[in-house]
Specification:
8-stranded antiparallel sheet, mainly beta, globular, Deoxyuridine 5'-Triphosphate Nucleotidohydrolase, Chain A
């Protein structure tokens, strides 16, 4: 049975289900729209790390679906279950099936002031992909995660190689 938006909010408060970058307006009636935290790509694939960090309880499992807007753009995503006990950001890989999505990097310059009052400029590269007026970039709601309550807490929660890692650490 899928959890409702109210049950998800409860788990966020009580158990930190989404512990980093939770945005209440991303709740759907029966799930949560995850956003792009970072993105890299090659000619055919787009590699995404979610902005959100998850702490899946030992009696909950997550199922991910690509938002239909992006399926209509020619993107294909096949995702596995998010196991009970998983902690960390999620890695999503999308196939640019028709090759019509163009991807590029832009440089962003940010300025900070150090303790001495000197201005320090930092340049970061951020990826974005575009087709017509549709744009994929940091902050875009890309996929929905639905949460299901298990009938009993697992005796063997996820403890695999991706536990507490980010997509960046995997590469």
């Amino acid at each position: 049975m899928y959890l409702s938006n109210e049950e998800i909010k409860e788990l966020v408060k009580e158990k930190g289900l989404i512990s980093d970058n939770f945005v209440e307006s991303n709740l759907t009636p029966n799930g949560y729209d995850m956003t792009i935290g970072s993105m890299t790509f090659d000619r055919r694939f787009i590699y995404i790390e979610t902005a959100e960090e998850f702490n899946i309880p030992n009696d909950v499992v997550g199922t991910i679906f690509l938002r239909s807007t992006f399926a209509r753009m020619g993107l294909v995503g096949t995702f596995g279950a998010v196991d009970a006990g998983y902690k960390g950001k999620l890695s999503l890989t999308l196939l640019n099936s028709d090759g019509l999505l163009s991807c590029n990097y832009i440089s962003r310059v940010s300025k900070t002031h150090g303790a001495t009052g000197a201005t320090v400029e930092t340049t970061t590269k951020e990826g974005y992909c575009k087709k017509g007026d549709m744009v994929l970039q940091k902050g875009t709601r890309i996929a929905q995660i639905l949460f299901s309550k298990m009938s009993k807490e697992t005796s063997a929660p996820y403890n695999g190689k991706y536990q507490k890692k980010t997509a960046t650490q995997e590469q």
